[in-house]
Amino acid sequence: EKEMDGLLFFTDFEKCEKVRWEKFFKCNDLGKDLPPVIKAYRDWEASDESKQCCEWKEEDRPVFQDKQTEVPAPFFLKDFLLANSEKLAAGEAVPLLGNDHPDKEFQVMVVGGKSQQKGQISEFETWLYQVKGTANVAVQSGTLALLEGCCCIIEPGTSFDVSRDSGSIGLLLRQESGKHGKD
C-alpha cells in the first residue's frame, strides 16, 4: 500500500547519473496507471520547461534509488534459449534470471513444450508471451490460442492452465509477493 513506482528519464542513458524528468505514482494496474504518467512526460517534453535545467533532490523523492546493487550484464535471449534447448524441448520450465539475480520481486520463467501447466494462480497479474510456436491458455470463461509473438495478461486470482505444443517456447512473468529487492 505504501509502495510507489517511478518513471525517470536521464540526460544520458549510458550513465544514468543525472535525471532529466521524473514522476512517482502508485501503480496498481499498469494499463491504467502508467499512460497518464507517460502523457505527463510527453506534455513536459513539448513545453518550454523541458529546455531548462531541472534539479531533482534525492531527499525530496518518495522513492530512493538503489545505487549499490550490482545489476548483472544483459544477455541475448537467443543465447539463453540455445544453452537451454534440451530442457525446453523436454517441456521444462527454466528460470530466465537465475537464483543469483538480485531482483527477487519477479519470477520470470522460460517454458518449453510439449508441456502443460495446470491450475496456476497468483495474487498478482501474470504476463504470458509466446516466443515460438503456439500455447493454449484456458481460464473459466474460455481458451485463447496464444500464437508466436503474442502475449496476454491473466488477472490476479484467476486460475489458468497452459498447454504448450511440441517445440513451443513461452515466457511467464509474475510478481512474487513480499520478495522486494534482495533476500
Layout of helices and strands, plus pairs?
Elements: E1 5-10, E2 19-25, H1 30-46, H2 77-83, H3 85-89, E3 93-95, E4 106-112, E5 115-120, E6 126-132, E7 135-139, E8 142-146, E9 151-154, E10 160-164, E11 169-175
Antiparallel strand pairs: 1-2, 3-4, 4-11, 5-10, 6-9, 6-11, 7-8, 7-10
Task: Please explain how this structure is put together.
By secondary structure, the chain is an alpha+beta fold. The protein is built from 3 helices and 11 strands. It has helices at residues 30-46, 77-83, 85-89, and strands at 5-10, 19-25, 93-95, 106-112, 115-120, 126-132, 135-139, 142-146, 151-154, 160-164, 169-175. The strands form 3 sheets. The chain has a 5-stranded antiparallel β-sheet with strand order 3-4-11-6-9. It is elongated.
Low-confidence stretches: none
Measured as a percent range, the helix fraction is 10-25%
Alpha carbon gyration radius? 20 Å
Oligomer: single chain
Largest sheet: 5 strands, antiparallel
How large is the count of helical segments?
3
How far is the first residue's CA from the last residue's CA? 20 Å
- Order the strands across the largest sheet as they lie in space: 3-4-11-6-9
Order of helical and strand elements: EEHHHEEEEEEEEE
Q: How would you state the average pLDDT, rounded? A: 88
Total DSSP E strands: 11
Shape: elongated
By secondary-structure content and strand pairing, the structural class works out as alpha+beta
Percentage beta strand: 25-35%
